[in-house]
Amino acid sequence: MIHVGIAGLGFMGMTHYNAYKKVDGAKVVAICETDPVRLSGDWRSIKGNFGPQGEVVDLEGIAKYPELDAMLADPNVDLVDVCLPPAAHAGASIAASKAGKHVLCEKAIALKAEDAVDMVEAAKAAGRQLMIAHVLPFVPEYGFAYEKVESGEYGRLLGGHFRRIISDPLWLKDFYDPDACGGPMIDLHIHDAHFIRLVCGMPKAVHSTGRMRGEVAEFFNTQFLFDDPALVVTAVSGVINQQGRPFTHGYEIYFEKATLLFESFTGTPLTVLTDDGQVVKPELGSPDMLDAFPIELAEAARAVETGTPSKLLDGALARDALILAHKQTQSIVARKTVEV
What we know:
Blueprint: E1 2-7, H1 11-20, E2 26-32, H2 36-39, E3 63-65, H3 68-72, E4 79-82, H4 89-98, E5 102-106, H5 113-126, E6 130-133, H6 140-151, E7 157-167, H7 183-200, E8 205-213, E9 216-225, E10 232-240, E11 248-255, E12 258-263, E13 268-274, E14 279-280, H8 292-306, H9 315-334, E15 338-339
Helix pairs in contact: 1-8, 4-5, 5-9, 7-9
């Protein structure tokens, strides 16, 4: 049984806390939160853009710490789950690694690429695992695609086009602050950058066009360039300023023997178009995003329990995704292709 300490009781901290209840191999034994009301178990002020609102929670039997250093000194904590705002990810994760704890940190790994590099190095020096909670590979439509890439069932991967678009998140006052949330590139598109890096490898260059909003990219389109010229990968992401626009994600992924289609906005379920003319709609797991989190956290617990790192939660993979995001912003500003 892996004993978990959660750092930060915002929406993701609450989501992880609830998800751990469904994980056989992990148990929350400690929580760190500076807000005394939330630390007491009153989570009614917590809300997000999916899932239930916060409620009053019984935290009896769980150690409660107003300061992170105190939780890091708790010998009963094996894994620190960092659910703090992105600007605090690097400091908390590095401190946890140095304290001898394994780390699961929410995405994005950090706001600055150099901080992500330091996080990976700190975990390596401490002999501990650094995992980044990119949940997308655990969402059924993306998990299916990853499985087909790994198995080679449909032949060689030839590329894909990825979409992730939202209306302006007006409830997030620091969304466009490069030192707080990072804007659409870091908060939103990082999911697809991570998945592209996972299934395609690291591009040699990116070419992005788009609109800037201050120091961050608001809406953009990117071509990822690989050593293999037959691998054609693009992505579009960002904010559309019509508040009726629902959250949209989807893809077309191309193999030698099949194409995978998925689009949340139009309600297109995962569809497989095969080279022999079949149109197949596979039965998948639950479409509820919340159901992906227990699977993700169970993978983190398994990695710590067995000592075998997770390929999907690998800190170096998340570091590379952040590097790609920053290279795309550089390309937008410079209006030219940027080497990775």
